[in-house]
Amino acid sequence: MDIQITADSTCDLGESVQKRGIGIVPLCVILGETTYHDGVDITPQDIFAYVEKTGQLPKTSTPTIADYEDFFRTYVEAGKTVIHYNISVKASSAHRYAVEAAKAFPGKVYVVDSMNLSTGQGLVIMKACDLRDAGKSAEEIVEETKRIAPMVNTSFVPDRLDYLYKGGRCSRMTMYGANLLKIHPMIEMKDGQLIAEKKLRGSMEKCIASYIDDLHEMYPKYDKTRCFITHSYADESVVEVARKKVKELFTFDEVLETVAGSVITGHCGRNTLGVLFITE
User: What is residue 253's DSSP assignment?
Assistant: First the structure.
């Protein structure tokens, strides 16, 4: 069986997309009256400039059912069986649209809710690629990736809360207090949705070190295949702390670094960083 793994652009997999042969359908980013496609004709720097100039966050939209049908059809007509991984259904309507589109290709397109976003979603996709390369059937890949989706640690620490405030995810008072007191929340995905788990205080370098210490305590057992350090153009000093801490505390076979795409960046702002991996 010729299996094609595909995903929404929110998986933030960077170079792994080409290396693992993953098909990507872009979500849309809307700046003012102009619509762009994530990873195609817009960059996070464009978003930073837009927010600084207008004080407004970009809007995002998902592919339509027809868009997903067109996307899937290309692979199906080439004789492939498609397994598609969406951003969490609790974060976007993309999954529902993809499920509806898959009905046009019975038995040829499987759609899976990753229950995650960014490289948390990416970890589920990479596991699907591992299973595909090991010769597993589409049904086996779908079953196993559905099993591990709730076990992914998707978490991150934002530098400032400006973007979360503009997006309605925290109050003005919380934002001002956090920025003034250098409070950085650890935000974690639970059951497919983001919640603030803990407040860290100090410089971003200090907070990232504490955050990774906490991950080490929280998840003593984990899948050692891979880990992602994903950030939204974070300062090199912040990324270097993450590199050293992960190497010191964990024993992953590979540690991959990626930069978040435009959709994810538009919600968290610059200098956000997360360490993501599959737990056991």
Answer: S
pLDDT of residue 173: 46
DSSP secondary structure code for residue 168 in this structure: T
| Contact call for residues 154 and 118 (beta carbons, < 8 A) | yes
Chain centroid offset of residue 44 CA: 14
Q: pLDDT tens for residues 164-201?
A: 544 454 444 454 445 655 678 888 888 887 777 788 88
Q: Model confidence over 48-106: pLDDT tens digits?
A: 899 889 888 888 899 999 999 999 999 999 999 999 999 999 988 999 999 999 999 99
Q: Which amino acid is at 134?
A: A
- The residue count for the chain: 280
Domains contained in the chain, CATH given = 3-27+62-149 (3.40.50.10440), 154-279 (3.30.1180.10)
3-state secondary structure 121-149: HHHHHHHHHHHHHCCCCHHHHHHHHHHHH
Cα(169)–Cα(147) distance, integer angstroms = 29
> Would you give the DSSP letter of residue 220?
S
Which of 67, 69, 36 lies closest to 50 in space, CA to CA? 36
Q: Specify the pLDDT at position 96.
A: 97
| Amino acid sitting at position 46 | D
* Inter-residue contact 230 to 268 (CB < 8 Å): no
CA dist 1 → 84, 135, 168, 200 (Å) = 16, 9, 46, 48
